[in-house]
Write a structure and sequence with these properties.
Layout (H helix, E strand, L loop, with lengths): L20 H13 L2 E5 L6 H12 L4 E5 L4 H8 L4 E3 L3 H4 L6 H4 L4 H15 L4 E4 L2 H9 L1 H4 L3 E5 L10 H13 L3 E4 L2 H11 L15 H5 L6 H8 L6 E6 L8 H10 L3 E6 L7 H14 L5 E5 L4 H6 L3 E3 L10 H8 L4 E4 L4 H4 L7 E3 L4 H13 L1 H18 L2 H13 L4
Parallel strand pairs: 1-2, 1-4, 2-3, 4-5, 5-6, 7-8, 7-10, 8-9, 10-11, 11-12
Helix pairs in contact: 1-20, 6-7, 13-14, 13-18
The protein binds uridine-5'-diphosphate and alpha-D-glucopyranose.
Alpha-D-glucopyranose binds next to helix 2.
Pfam families: Glyco_transf_4, Glycos_transf_1
Protein name: Glycosyltransferase involved in cell wall biosynthesis
Keywords: Glycosyltransferase, Transferase
Length: 416
Amino acid sequence: MFKETTSANPPILAPGILATAETCVETRTRQETASVLFVDQSGQLGGAEFSLMPLAATWDARREVLLLSDGPFRERLESLGVPVSLACEASVSGIRKDTLRLHWLGALPGIVRQVRAIARHAEHFDILFLNTQKALVLGALGKPLHRKPIVWHLHDIMSSEHFGPLQRFVVRWLTRHAVDHVIANSRASADSLVALARCAPENVPVVHNGVDLDEFRCESAPDMAGLRGQFGLPENVYLAGLFGRLAPWKGQHIALEALARVPDLHLVLVGSALFGEQEYVKSLHAQAARLGVQDRLIFAGFRDDMPAWMKAVDVILHTSTEPEPFGRVIIEGMAAGRPVIAAAAGGVTEILRHRTNGWLVPPRDVTALADAIEVLRAAPEMANRLAAQALDDVAQRFSVGAYLDQMKRVIAGTSG
Ligand code: UDP
Ligand code: GLC
């Protein structure tokens, strides 16, 4: 459980500092024996799910993933040999963070069933690992039933821009009274929870996501023209790519505005509306028509082969309008060896340094984004230099190996 604190300046905990030589030996032993039930609300493939995948796949002892919705995430886990079970309730899956107040009462019977289902599953494991907001609420509410240590992987910035008052109240209460351990995906996410729950900063260690560098290196990939030909992308143009689900706060509309301002620029949007944001997708098409940029814009939909798609573009854009909790797509772009222009807020500023390993612009600033694209297009040597530094940095700081080591140490340290 969490101690309350009034500390205004939480210390920055570098990933990995939790392990001294002594605790390392101790946790390694526990790590091999502690069984874990991982719970995730989504069957879709988002950043939180991509970060859980290698952890569940390589966990040394018995483990299972319990999903609260079915979808391609289940298939991916199963293909990695991870046992998966489902506890779906349509009424609960239908609750969205923006409609929480209206829907949760009607979903109460479903909520009770899911709390019980998670608790029943958890009884057979040593640790309950909750990977998403709904998993946190449903898993932690059942603590009196299962009485297992709870680890919550925080992938969100718990600010009022991202969440309503009810969700924030519930998270604050559960953090103080039911959660045993939190791991935050960035300092920005950690700080937001410390501010919300007034918990001790040292109780919210940060472990940044990591990427599989070999997967992104793809030595055997064909040249840029070959890749573009293979994907039906225009070959002899300057092409920007924006990778991620289509959702208002991911800011694809900002990229479209910038596209209209930069002559001859082409843009590919890779990703789909994973959580029902169909109205936003329609609005993007209408905006493209209004701006007259349809012939320079490609909607590629959700793609499985991100390394190749990233290598097929000249520059990668990140345009979130709200502070990004971490931003896996940024470290992936760096690993793919492409220059990244990103909105400077939240976890992004823990990854990118302006003009050193990327280019930062203020969020929602269309002019700054358009200017940045022009600058990198006009100075390919500088763009290459940024990309090379980014590749070095991602290998040093954001490898999947380092991520797994740190996560496993923290999780194992909670079971005793
Ligand atoms: N992604 C993918 N195919 C797509 C679009 C996105 O596989 O068509 C992946 C992307 O590679 C990244 C994840 O989805 O690993 C998005 O994670 P991020 O943390 O950037 O954003 P969020 O989880 O907030 O959507
Ligand atoms: C969430 C966040 C994203 C982060 C991912 C992995 O989906 O929105 O910023 O990269 O989790 O931690």
